[in-house]
Amino acid sequence: MEMKLVICVHHYFQLYQAPEWLAPNLEREFPGLRAISLSSYDDLPREAADADALVAWSVRPGQLAAAKKLRWLHSTMAAVGNVLVPEVVNSDIVVTNSSSVHGPVVAEHALALLLALARQVPRSRDYQREGRWGLEALYFEGVRPRTVGGATLVVVGMGAIGSRVAQMASALGMKVFGVREHPARGGEGAEQVFGFDKLDDLLPKVDFVVLAAPVTPKTQGLMNAERLALLPRTAFIVNVSRGALLDETALVAAINEGHLAGAALDVFAEEPLPAASPLWRAPQVLITPHSAALNEHLWQRQYECICENLRRFQSGRPLLGVVDKVRGY
């Protein structure tokens, strides 16, 4: 089947840029496919004008105004906000994402952060740098190491990331509850799944909270000062979703005042996280630089994801990973 696919994937981080082999490999895999890989956004309006499909992580308003043939846009990210420009939302273009690529890896990172908090790994690292045998300090000073077996976890967002977190946490013996916009859809690994209207009832009973939900009107500022105050003083929070879900100022205040045991954050309201941010110096805060999706197989998995949907696209079958352009996920 003859078709044109444009690849326009640009990011300040080199790993997230489309590799040179992507376009030629796709052309070898799919006879009749013309895959164009762009080195900048400059030629996107012209190349997209007669394209059938587009692979991107970000599109600027107006760049697809002339793309009248475009029927499919694939985002190499799980979050699709950067491609939902008006000419995409108000069209018949089907948008898919790479949640199946990133979900399992980000879930592993979330669990690693959770375990690091539970076992107080950052403090042991601090003692190592000091050349200090911190056995007594770990137990008698500050938050004590604890076991996750039998602990209660609330996972906010039960998509590809949250469901995988729930499955792995359940395997470790944790009692897992899920929260999502449509609780009737359930969530593998969770004992029960609730709507957002039940979140305030769950928070006072938890040991850990993992934020894995997309940014929507319901989740924007979800964990504000009021909700952080509902958590037990012994609770930890992990955010691998987006910084917009969590009030960072309220989080620092809660930890500094002893109202929260700690937090692990991979995402932030402003990225890169400014050097002046109090999060860098907040006690019991573990920071990773939005690195949850990093892995050595990233583009091989992206390639497999794109190939599967190309087969479906060419045969007229439903695509995988289709997102609701209005809801944004």
**CATH homology superfamily of the largest domain:** NAD(P)-binding Rossmann-like Domain
Uncertain stretches: none
Assign the CATH class of the largest domain: Alpha Beta
Note the main sheet. Answer: 7 strands, parallel
Roughly what percent helix?
A: 25-40%
Indicate the proportion of strand residues. Answer: 15-25%
CATH architecture of the largest domain: 3-Layer(aba) Sandwich
The value of Rg in angstroms is 22 Å
Please tell me the total number of domains.
Answer: 2
CATH fold title of the largest domain: Rossmann fold
- Helix-strand category: alpha/beta
Going across the biggest sheet, name each strand in turn: 8-7-6-9-10-11-12
Shape: elongated
Q: Can I get a quick summary?
A:
The chain is α/β, with parallel strands linked by helices and 329 residues long. The chain has helices spanning 22-29, 44-48, 86-89, 99-118, 121-130, 135-140, 160-171, 199-202, 225-230, 248-256, 298-315, and strands at residues 3-8, 33-37, 53-56, 72-75, 94-96, 152-156, 175-179, 192-194, 208-211, 236-239, 262-265, 285-287. Strand 4 (72-75), helix 3 (86-89) and strand 5 (94-96) form a beta-alpha-beta unit.
Write the layout of secondary structure elements.
Elements: E1 3-8, H1 22-29, E2 33-37, H2 44-48, E3 53-56, E4 72-75, H3 86-89, E5 94-96, H4 99-118, H5 121-130, H6 135-140, E6 152-156, H7 160-171, E7 175-179, E8 192-194, H8 199-202, E9 208-211, H9 225-230, E10 236-239, H10 248-256, E11 262-265, E12 285-287, H11 298-315
Parallel strand pairs: 1-2, 1-3, 3-4, 4-5, 6-7, 6-9, 7-8, 9-10, 10-11, 11-12
Helix pairs in contact: 4-7
